[in-house]
Design goal:
single chain; mainly alpha; Serine Threonine Protein Phosphatase 5, Tetratricopeptide repeat; two-stranded antiparallel ribbon; about 40% helix; about 10% strand; SusD_RagB_dom; membrane
């Protein structure tokens, strides 16, 4: 039988592929049951859990979040390998239905959906036959996790593809024809995934008591995704209900970490701020390819790092300048450092800046065991790199991780700071409540010892330095759009910046405005650890006019971006050609 449908091909890989790290070694060491038949499988709760691990495995597929190109198509990144030229189709807004990233993301999401459907169907059939209460409870929790992921994957499809109109699968197809499903309208898809997420919110536990279960999804994660969905659809009242559940329910115990850097490295993973997190590990499967689907490590470190990595993604000019200009709270002792001579001085850059990106003249936080200037050449007019997802705090070079092309840094998909900022937006756009919205923004800023918004002596932190500005709804919303969300959440989650720009209706205007900005580069001189004087040429970004090449971002994007073609990923060409319900031939 000829396999015409792309989703049919995806389904061939949908039986459990084990090895997903969900916070425990048992998951990472499970035996792959691909050789089992459906007649011999799905007979016990352990079978359900094995199938669920395959769903977690689908979640850790790096194509599912597609972080590099989801951000290349926003205003946040430059696609690497030096300036000022690039041929990256996502940055240039030249992608189409044949481009690899939407094809791979579609494949990853539907593979996860098919695996979740297997667990859902099997759970619903098995649970009524179970005799003891503990088995029923365990199976019910597995069902709730599977429905969470099916809802999450459809949420990603609806916010990512074809203006939200995609095929729905609420069953396990039994023959080729059942894979030929038509596109459903966005409203129907939304109703479908919201039902899944609401079920998960009601039936998932708020936390897990066993260490072996840490990293599994919780009711708090479901509430966060529900709130995000309602915010994206401008249902601010309902969004606030779910965000308040996340923030105020003591059973979840969420709290901002003391150190913002704990959200970006292997230090303090699965911490109090983490709501939804993808677990990766270096402890297993070193014998198989770094690119294998069952691999439990990631290689985002090689994407972002210039120290042994490919440096194929780094911050755009405006983002680097915004980080450099993010003002610190001069009244906060965390912003003062003691130099080798015993003198005390103010940090050059904020804690948030230092933990988010690496700048050549940032002398206050080590980078791969030395200074940022000494760690890498900063050549080719590269003036900053993302620290996020790299292993700068535990190795001197990404190639020190053997075998290469692997990283154990977890990906925090949703964290509490994101919820605080989304809640602030809901307050502003729903109620016009500027003061309360500012409270939540300032909580995020205070964690990183940043200058707070509003008047000195006000708010939850009256001793902190404030900017002494008066805000209204529009000016505070502008701050959220152009400062707080991009600087706090750069390169995080599922296409956060791309979706934010689109839902605010500012993508085209943003590209056009940024294409008018001019940046220049200056040299940085320092003495290295061997006492040698070294110059990093064109490594310092500035808006001050210099006798150097002018850097201008997004000129092609401003010209090429058409909302009807680029606001969403198109349905992939592989699906259009294969599926007769969408466009393929019978």
């Amino acid at each position: 039988m000829k396999l015409k449908n792309n989703l049919y091909k995806i389904m061939l890989c949908a039986l459990p592929v084990l090895g997903m790290g969900t916070g425990c070694s048992d998951f990472l060491e499970e035996v792959n049951p691909n050789e089992m038949s459906t007649e011999s499988f799905w007979k016990t709760v352990d079978d359900l859990d094995a199938g669920l691990i395959a769903v977690y495995n689908a979640f850790k597929n790096q194509n599912l979040l597609a972080i590099p190109d989801e951000y290349n198509r926003s205003d946040m990144t430059w696609p690497g390998w030096g300036r000022p030229n690039t041929s990256n189709q996502y940055y240039l807004q030249e992608f189409n239905e044949s481009s690899s990233t939407p094809n791979n993301k579609w494949d990853a999401l539907y593979k996860g959906i098919f695996r979740a459907n297997q667990v859902i169907v099997a759970s619903e059939e098995l649970i009524p036959t179970l005799k003891d209460e503990s088995s029923q409870e365990r199976a019910s929790t597995i069902l709730a996790q599977a429905r969470f992921f099916r809802g999450l994957f459809y949420f990603y499809l609806t916010t990512g593809f074809n203006e939200g109109n995609v095929p729905i699968f609420d069953f396990v197809p039994q023959n080729e024809e059942e894979f030929y499903q038509p596109v459903k309208p966005k409203e129907e898809v939304m109703a479908f995934y919201l039902a899944d997420l609401e079920y998960a919110h009601e039936h998932l536990p708020p936390s897990y008591s066993r260490d072996i279960d840490q990293g599994r999804v919780t009711a708090g994660a479901a509430a966060a995704v529900l709130g995000k969905s309602h915010l994206y659809n401008e249902n601010y009242t309902q969004a606030k209900v779910y965000f308040e559940d996340v923030m105020e329910n003591p059973a979840y115990g969420y709290a901002l970490t003391e150190n913002i850097g704990d959200n970006f490295t292997t230090t303090n993973e699965l911490n109090s701020e983490s709501i939804l997190e993808i677990n990766y590990s270096l402890a297993y499967k070193s014998e198989i390819s770094a690119w294998a689907e069952e691999q439990v490590s990631n290689n985002l470190n090689f994407t972002v790092s210039p120290v042994g990595g490919w440096r194929s993604l780094y911050p755009s000019c405006w983002l680097i300048m915004a980080y450099k200009e993010d003002p610190v709270d001069i009244n906060d002792p965390r912003n003062y450092v003691v130099d080798e001579d015993g003198s005390t001085r103010l940090r050059k850059y904020s804690l948030r800046t230092s933990y988010s990106i690496a700048l050549v003249d940032d002398t206050d936080l080590e980078y791969y065991g030395t200074s940022t200037a000494e760690a890498t050449a900063f050549n080719n007019k590269e003036t900053g790199y993302f620290r996020k997802y790299s292993n700068w705090e535990i190795v001197e070079d990404e190639k020190d991780i053997v075998p290469n092309l692997r990283s154990g840094v977890n990906v925090r998909v949703i964290r509490l700071a994101d919820v605080y900022l989304m809640y602030a937006e809901a307050l502003l756009m729903g109620d016009g409540n500027v003061e309360e919205a500012m409270t939540y923004i300032n909580r995020v800023r205070h964690r990183s010892a940043l200058q707070l918004l509003g008047m000195d002596g006000t708010g939850e932190y009256p001793a902190a330095a404030h900017d002494n500005q008066t805000y209204d709804v529009q000016s505070l919303m502008d701050h959220l759009m152009y400062v707080e969300r991009p600087l706090e959440l750069s390169l995080e989650g599922n296409a956060i910046r791309t979706i934010d720009l689109r839902r605010w209706g500012i993508t085209k205007d943003r590209f056009e405005e940024l294409s008018q900005r001019k940046y220049y580069t200056d040299n940085f001189e320092f003495v290295n650890s061997n006492g040698q004087s070294v110059t990093r040429w064109a490594s310092v970004l500035t808006t001050e006019e210099m006798e150097s090449d002018v850097l201008i971002d997004y000129q092609q994007a401003a010209s090429n971006y058409i909302a009807s073609e680029h606001a969403y990923w198109p349905i992939p060409n592989s699906e259009i050609v294969a599926n007769p319900q969408i466009g393929g031939e019978e």
